[in-house]
Amino acid sequence: MDPVKTITMNNRFTAIVEEASATLYRTAHTTFIKLVQDFQCAIATPEGEVFAYPSQSGVNSFIGIQINGGLNGIDIKSLKPGDVIITNDPFATDGLVTHMMDVTMLRPIFHRERLVAFSWAFVHASDIGGAVPGSISPSSTDIFQEGLRIRPVKLYEAGELNTQIKNIFLDNSRIPNEMWGDFQAMLSAMKTMDRRLNQLCDRYGTDEVCEGMQASLALAEDSAREVIRAIPDGSYRFGDY
Description:
By secondary structure, the chain is α+β, with helices and mostly antiparallel strands. Helices cover about 40% and strands about 15% of the residues. It has five helices and seven strands; from the N terminus they run ααβββββββααα. The chain has helices spanning about 5-25, 30-35, 165-170, 175-205, 205-230, and strands at about 40-45, 50, 85, 100-110, 115-125, 155, 160. Strands 2-1-5-4-3-6-7 form a seven-stranded antiparallel beta sheet. A hairpin with a 2-residue loop joins strand 6 and strand 7 (about 160). The chain is globular.
Protein backbone atom coordinates (compact mmCIF):
# COMPACT_ATOMS: atom_id res chain seq x y z
CA MET A 1 0.00 0.00 0.00
CA ASP A 2 1.39 3.43 -0.93
CA PRO A 3 2.32 5.88 1.88
CA VAL A 4 -0.69 8.18 1.38
CA LYS A 5 -3.17 5.31 1.60
CA THR A 6 -1.31 3.89 4.60
CA ILE A 7 -1.51 7.14 6.55
CA THR A 8 -5.15 7.62 5.54
CA MET A 9 -6.11 4.16 6.77
CA ASN A 10 -4.01 4.48 9.92
CA ASN A 11 -5.73 7.77 10.77
CA ARG A 12 -9.14 6.23 10.10
CA PHE A 13 -8.38 3.32 12.42
CA THR A 14 -7.10 5.70 15.11
CA ALA A 15 -10.27 7.78 14.89
CA ILE A 16 -12.39 4.66 15.36
CA VAL A 17 -10.65 3.54 18.54
CA GLU A 18 -10.44 7.06 19.98
CA GLU A 19 -14.21 7.43 19.55
CA ALA A 20 -14.82 4.03 21.16
CA SER A 21 -12.50 4.85 24.07
CA ALA A 22 -14.38 8.11 24.67
CA THR A 23 -17.67 6.21 24.58
CA LEU A 24 -16.44 3.73 27.17
CA TYR A 25 -15.13 6.49 29.42
CA ARG A 26 -18.26 8.64 29.26
CA THR A 27 -20.78 5.81 29.78
CA ALA A 28 -18.97 3.78 32.48
CA HIS A 29 -20.18 3.93 36.08
CA THR A 30 -17.33 3.40 38.52
CA THR A 31 -14.43 5.34 39.97
CA PHE A 32 -11.71 3.18 38.45
CA ILE A 33 -12.83 4.31 35.00
CA LYS A 34 -14.05 7.83 35.74
CA LEU A 35 -11.11 9.02 37.87
CA VAL A 36 -8.28 6.52 37.43
CA GLN A 37 -8.98 5.79 33.73
CA ASP A 38 -8.11 2.12 34.24
CA PHE A 39 -9.78 0.95 31.03
CA GLN A 40 -9.15 0.70 27.30
CA CYS A 41 -10.31 -0.68 23.96
CA ALA A 42 -8.64 -1.47 20.63
CA ILE A 43 -8.99 -3.34 17.34
CA ALA A 44 -6.95 -6.37 16.29
CA THR A 45 -6.56 -8.40 13.12
CA PRO A 46 -8.19 -11.85 12.89
CA GLU A 47 -4.72 -13.21 13.78
CA GLY A 48 -4.80 -11.26 17.05
CA GLU A 49 -2.38 -8.38 16.34
CA VAL A 50 -3.56 -5.00 17.63
CA PHE A 51 -3.32 -2.43 14.81
CA ALA A 52 -5.31 0.48 16.29
CA TYR A 53 -4.98 1.69 19.89
CA PRO A 54 -6.10 4.95 21.54
CA SER A 55 -3.55 7.34 23.00
CA GLN A 56 -5.72 10.16 24.33
CA SER A 57 -7.32 8.34 27.26
CA GLY A 58 -7.17 5.16 29.31
CA VAL A 59 -4.30 2.73 29.82
CA ASN A 60 -1.50 2.68 27.23
CA SER A 61 0.52 -0.25 28.57
CA PHE A 62 -1.29 -2.84 26.41
CA ILE A 63 -0.02 -1.38 23.13
CA GLY A 64 1.53 -4.19 21.12
CA ILE A 65 0.00 -7.06 23.10
CA GLN A 66 -1.79 -9.80 21.18
CA ILE A 67 -5.41 -10.58 22.02
CA ASN A 68 -5.24 -14.31 21.15
CA GLY A 69 -5.14 -15.30 24.81
CA GLY A 70 -8.67 -14.02 25.29
CA LEU A 71 -9.85 -16.62 22.79
CA ASN A 72 -8.29 -19.65 24.47
CA GLY A 73 -10.81 -22.49 24.49
CA ILE A 74 -13.05 -20.72 21.95
CA ASP A 75 -13.55 -22.25 18.50
CA ILE A 76 -12.76 -19.32 16.20
CA LYS A 77 -14.55 -20.93 13.26
CA SER A 78 -17.77 -21.11 15.29
CA LEU A 79 -17.87 -17.36 16.00
CA LYS A 80 -20.82 -15.40 14.64
CA PRO A 81 -21.79 -11.72 14.38
CA GLY A 82 -23.01 -10.56 17.79
CA ASP A 83 -20.82 -12.95 19.80
CA VAL A 84 -18.99 -11.46 22.79
CA ILE A 85 -16.35 -13.33 24.81
CA ILE A 86 -15.69 -12.32 28.42
CA THR A 87 -12.92 -13.36 30.81
CA ASN A 88 -10.89 -12.17 33.79
CA ASP A 89 -8.52 -15.14 34.04
CA PRO A 90 -4.80 -14.21 33.99
CA PHE A 91 -3.78 -17.87 33.72
CA ALA A 92 -5.91 -18.81 30.71
CA THR A 93 -5.24 -15.72 28.57
CA ASP A 94 -1.45 -15.67 27.97
CA GLY A 95 -0.95 -12.29 29.60
CA LEU A 96 -3.89 -10.46 28.04
CA VAL A 97 -5.49 -10.24 31.50
CA THR A 98 -2.99 -8.91 34.03
CA HIS A 99 -5.01 -9.52 37.19
CA MET A 100 -8.52 -10.73 37.96
CA MET A 101 -9.98 -7.25 38.44
CA ASP A 102 -9.35 -6.53 34.73
CA VAL A 103 -12.52 -7.91 33.15
CA THR A 104 -11.89 -8.27 29.41
CA MET A 105 -14.21 -8.63 26.42
CA LEU A 106 -13.65 -9.57 22.76
CA ARG A 107 -16.13 -9.20 19.91
CA PRO A 108 -15.54 -10.55 16.39
CA ILE A 109 -16.17 -7.99 13.64
CA PHE A 110 -17.68 -9.40 10.45
CA HIS A 111 -18.26 -7.68 7.12
CA ARG A 112 -20.57 -9.59 4.81
CA GLU A 113 -19.93 -12.83 6.71
CA ARG A 114 -16.14 -12.40 6.56
CA LEU A 115 -14.24 -12.10 9.83
CA VAL A 116 -12.16 -8.94 9.39
CA ALA A 117 -11.09 -8.02 12.94
CA PHE A 118 -11.68 -8.31 16.68
CA SER A 119 -12.69 -5.47 18.95
CA TRP A 120 -11.23 -5.64 22.46
CA ALA A 121 -12.06 -3.82 25.68
CA PHE A 122 -11.28 -4.09 29.37
CA VAL A 123 -12.16 -2.29 32.59
CA HIS A 124 -10.69 -2.59 36.04
CA ALA A 125 -13.81 -3.85 37.82
CA SER A 126 -14.24 -2.10 41.17
CA ASP A 127 -15.28 -5.35 42.88
CA ILE A 128 -15.29 -8.98 41.73
CA GLY A 129 -15.83 -10.45 45.19
CA GLY A 130 -13.16 -11.95 47.40
CA ALA A 131 -12.09 -11.22 50.94
CA VAL A 132 -12.33 -7.42 50.89
CA PRO A 133 -14.35 -4.72 49.09
CA GLY A 134 -12.51 -3.79 45.91
CA SER A 135 -10.98 -7.29 45.69
CA ILE A 136 -7.42 -6.01 46.33
CA SER A 137 -5.62 -6.50 49.64
CA PRO A 138 -1.87 -6.60 50.42
CA SER A 139 -2.66 -9.17 53.11
CA SER A 140 -4.04 -11.74 50.63
CA THR A 141 -1.96 -14.90 50.50
CA ASP A 142 -3.53 -16.73 47.56
CA ILE A 143 -5.53 -15.96 44.43
CA PHE A 144 -8.76 -17.40 45.80
CA GLN A 145 -8.98 -14.47 48.21
CA GLU A 146 -9.12 -12.05 45.29
CA GLY A 147 -12.55 -13.17 44.07
CA LEU A 148 -14.11 -14.65 40.98
CA ARG A 149 -12.01 -16.09 38.13
CA ILE A 150 -13.65 -16.98 34.78
CA ARG A 151 -11.79 -18.33 31.74
CA PRO A 152 -12.91 -17.12 28.26
CA VAL A 153 -16.62 -17.81 27.71
CA LYS A 154 -19.38 -16.32 25.57
CA LEU A 155 -21.38 -13.59 27.30
CA TYR A 156 -23.37 -13.05 24.10
CA GLU A 157 -24.02 -15.58 21.36
CA ALA A 158 -25.31 -14.19 18.06
CA GLY A 159 -26.53 -11.13 19.94
CA GLU A 160 -28.35 -13.08 22.66
CA LEU A 161 -27.26 -12.42 26.24
CA ASN A 162 -26.30 -15.47 28.30
CA THR A 163 -27.92 -14.42 31.56
CA GLN A 164 -26.27 -17.29 33.45
CA ILE A 165 -22.78 -15.95 32.67
CA LYS A 166 -23.93 -12.41 33.45
CA ASN A 167 -25.29 -13.51 36.81
CA ILE A 168 -22.12 -15.39 37.75
CA PHE A 169 -20.25 -12.09 37.54
CA LEU A 170 -22.92 -9.96 39.18
CA ASP A 171 -23.77 -12.40 41.99
CA ASN A 172 -20.12 -12.36 43.08
CA SER A 173 -19.78 -8.57 43.20
CA ARG A 174 -20.67 -6.23 46.04
CA ILE A 175 -21.75 -3.60 43.47
CA PRO A 176 -23.54 -5.60 40.74
CA ASN A 177 -25.45 -2.69 39.20
CA GLU A 178 -22.34 -0.54 38.82
CA MET A 179 -20.40 -3.53 37.51
CA TRP A 180 -23.02 -4.21 34.85
CA GLY A 181 -22.95 -0.52 33.94
CA ASP A 182 -19.22 -0.81 33.24
CA PHE A 183 -19.84 -3.97 31.20
CA GLN A 184 -22.45 -2.13 29.12
CA ALA A 185 -19.94 0.66 28.53
CA MET A 186 -17.49 -1.90 27.13
CA LEU A 187 -20.21 -3.40 24.95
CA SER A 188 -21.11 0.05 23.61
CA ALA A 189 -17.48 0.76 22.77
CA MET A 190 -17.14 -2.54 20.90
CA LYS A 191 -20.37 -1.95 18.98
CA THR A 192 -19.00 1.46 17.98
CA MET A 193 -15.82 -0.12 16.63
CA ASP A 194 -17.86 -2.77 14.79
CA ARG A 195 -20.13 -0.17 13.17
CA ARG A 196 -17.32 2.20 12.16
CA LEU A 197 -15.10 -0.54 10.72
CA ASN A 198 -18.03 -1.85 8.69
CA GLN A 199 -18.63 1.65 7.35
CA LEU A 200 -14.98 1.77 6.34
CA CYS A 201 -15.30 -1.59 4.56
CA ASP A 202 -18.43 -0.38 2.75
CA ARG A 203 -16.58 2.71 1.53
CA TYR A 204 -13.19 1.27 0.56
CA GLY A 205 -13.82 -2.47 0.26
CA THR A 206 -12.91 -5.23 2.70
CA ASP A 207 -9.67 -6.16 0.94
CA GLU A 208 -8.48 -2.54 0.97
CA VAL A 209 -9.24 -2.17 4.69
CA CYS A 210 -7.50 -5.44 5.57
CA GLU A 211 -4.50 -4.33 3.50
CA GLY A 212 -4.58 -1.09 5.51
CA MET A 213 -4.39 -3.07 8.74
CA GLN A 214 -1.21 -4.80 7.62
CA ALA A 215 0.23 -1.55 6.30
CA SER A 216 -0.42 0.13 9.66
CA LEU A 217 1.40 -2.68 11.46
CA ALA A 218 4.32 -2.41 9.03
CA LEU A 219 4.43 1.37 9.56
CA ALA A 220 4.53 0.87 13.34
CA GLU A 221 7.38 -1.64 12.99
CA ASP A 222 9.39 0.70 10.77
CA SER A 223 8.86 3.57 13.22
CA ALA A 224 9.94 1.42 16.17
CA ARG A 225 13.05 0.20 14.34
CA GLU A 226 13.97 3.81 13.53
CA VAL A 227 13.82 4.73 17.23
CA ILE A 228 15.89 1.69 18.22
CA ARG A 229 18.52 2.48 15.57
CA ALA A 230 18.96 5.94 17.11
CA ILE A 231 19.91 4.47 20.51
CA PRO A 232 23.72 4.39 20.87
CA ASP A 233 25.29 0.96 21.25
CA GLY A 234 26.08 0.04 24.83
CA SER A 235 24.77 -1.58 28.00
CA TYR A 236 21.73 -0.10 29.73
CA ARG A 237 20.36 -0.92 33.17
CA PHE A 238 17.43 0.21 35.27
CA GLY A 239 15.75 -0.64 38.55
CA ASP A 240 12.05 -1.14 39.14
CA TYR A 241 9.93 -1.72 42.22
